[in-house]
Amino acid sequence: MAKVIGKRLLSIIFVLWAVATLTYFMVHVTPGDTASAIVASVYGPEFIDENTLARVTEKYDLDRPIISQYFDWLKNAVCFNFGTSYRYNMPVKDIMLMRLPNTLKLGFTAFLISTLIGIPLGIWTAYRQNRFIDHFTRVSTLTLSSFPGFWVALVLIIIFAYNLKLFPTSGMDTPDSIVLPAVTLSVGMLASTTRLMRASMIEVLRQDYMLTAKSKGIKKTAVGFHAFRNAIPTIITVLGLQIGHILGGSVLVESVFAWPGLGGLFNDAVAAKDLPLMEGCVILVTFGYAFANLLVDILYAAVDPRVKYQEVS
Questions:
Q1: Which of the two residues, 175 and 312, has the higher pLDDT score?
Q2: For the residues 166-195, what does the mean pLDDT come to?
Q3: 266-273: which pairs have CB atoms within 8 A and are 24 or more residues apart?
Q4: Distance between CA atoms of 15 and 56, rounded to whole angstroms?
Q5: What does the alpha-carbon distance between residue 257 and residue 253 come to, in Å, rounded to a whole number?
Q6: Backbone angles phi, psi at 166, to 5 degrees
Q7: Residue 284 DSSP SS3
Q8: In the predicted structure, residue 148 carries a pLDDT above the cut 50
Q9: pLDDT tens digits, one per residue of 302-312
């Protein structure tokens, strides 16, 4: 197992380097002058002049060759030093650590909603295959997964914030502020979890050993629990992949609901062309996604004894 974990860690390091390098050069070739974007974001567009641009260019070493800047940045990034944010004039690491708990809180809540509803609903519809409730659930989940996140957010805001006045539309000042953004973020995950849990349960229930257990008169609860144990490894893989949906979807959801997390921070960085902050956010999200997949691989092998660690690697 230690060998597998070592291989996975090496792959994570390689993925982080590849994503960091690609992101670094992509943000440096985007249209627009970086110095002008910094001045406009920090001081205002009216302060853009030759002297101010020259000072900003010199302060952030923007006049140096990109390759030279890249190797200096990479050397510092290895030590978890992602530079200083142009917009906030603070170390990028400190800013991300301030916002990360808010994103984790939102993501965990959305994940909990989709899991606690999606898995039981998938099991329930699997036992009622081809009945009305099964068809209705499949059509509903497929429809929900087709809606873009911003549309779901707007509908929830109109219904539950403006009309019913049950929840706030933005910020995180009160405990109920998390309800609308968490539900918005969980919609896509809920649909996929329900459909895959249903499919996995149906596949297991059709196996010969399950039919034999039923014919022997074993209690339905015991049969159902055994079927769930054999179906859960597939769902574990899917739940791990949904971490990427949480991290990626939070960019849009946090912007719509003004949730002070990494997603909103990344949007602010893009608008201000804050290169160090953009790169830091991308690396952090990439690490979270890769690390989550590492945990899923290990957990999958632990839950399903038939899977060997050599096969997981």
A1: 175
A2: 87
A3: 268/87, 269/85, 269/87, 271/41, 272/37, 272/38, 272/40, 272/41, 272/42, 272/86, 272/87, 273/27, 273/30, 273/32, 273/34, 273/37, 273/38, 273/41, 273/86
A4: 32
A5: 6
A6: -95, -35
A7: helix
A8: yes
A9: 766 555 544 44
**Does 2 or 296 have the greater pLDDT score?**
296
Q: Are 274 and 268 in contact (CB under 8 A)?
A: yes
| Bridge partners of residue 249, in order along the sequence | none
The DSSP call for residue 259 is -
Cβ atoms within 10 A of the Cβ of 77, count?
20
* pTM score of the predicted model: 0.81
Report whether 111 contacts 296 (CB < 8 A). no
pLDDT digits (tens, 9 = 90+) for 227-268: 887 777 777 777 777 776 677 667 788 888 888 888 888 888
On the 0-12 / 13-18 / 19+ scale of CB atoms within 10 A, 249 is: buried
What one-character-per-residue DSSP string does 53-74 give? HHHHHHHTTTTS-HHHHHHHHH
Which positions ≥6 away from 168 have C-beta within 8 Å? 161, 174, 176, 177, 180
β partners of residue 91: 84
pLDDT of 1 higher than 70: no
* Whole-angstrom distance, CA of residue 184 vs CA of residue 189: 10
